[in-house]
Design goal:
Elements: E1 17-22, H1 29-43, E2 48-52, H2 58-66, E3 76-79, E4 82-85, H3 90-97, E5 103-109, H4 116-120, E6 124-130, H5 136-145, E7 152-157, H6 161-171, E8 175-177, H7 189-200
Parallel strand pairs: 1-5, 1-6, 2-4, 2-5, 6-7, 7-8
Antiparallel strand pairs: 3-4
Helix pairs in contact: 5-6
Length: 201
Amino acid sequence: MINFRRKRIVRRKTYHKLVVAGMTKGVGATHFSILLGNYYSEVLGIKTAIVDLNEDCDYEFLKQICVPESLIKNDVYNIHKVVYYQSVTRENLAGIFHENYECVILDVGSNYRKFLNEISMCDRKYLISSIGLWKVPGVVAGLKEIQFNEQWKFLYCFGNKESADYISECTGRRLYPIPVVNNPFKITGRQLMEVERILEE
């Protein structure tokens, strides 16, 4: 059940191609991709597609529980107003980019190093990490290792502001908290405001 409500005033700036990556597996890249897709389609009224380039098979489970088999064609299916693509090759991706979508979201999971060329075509990039206490050294090392430009925005889950501030001090990168949204198809007004803060700043 989707519970997004269109706002009277929409964001002034939107992005045509986005990528969501996870610094490691299990940090919520797929969850955030779905949340982002629902926001663009339901709140902003933008024709949106999500492309599964992740290797965790999360979308396969989503497809099984949300989509009747008769409505699936060549691993392409709709859940509410978002079109989902699975089993996508690099050749297929070029075709998807040329479809009449106003927003295409690439979920690359923790495989972002394999898709640097595809990521370079995106005009907004989100990298999610877990910053629990024992994860902090690895996050600091990871953010220093890869050359991220100003189009990247860094998000975190499973951590606190003190850890985020420490990582920011060590790396010069600001980190934004992802609100806890148990169901990416259902979100409260307060959670929506927190998501918009991430997208707008």
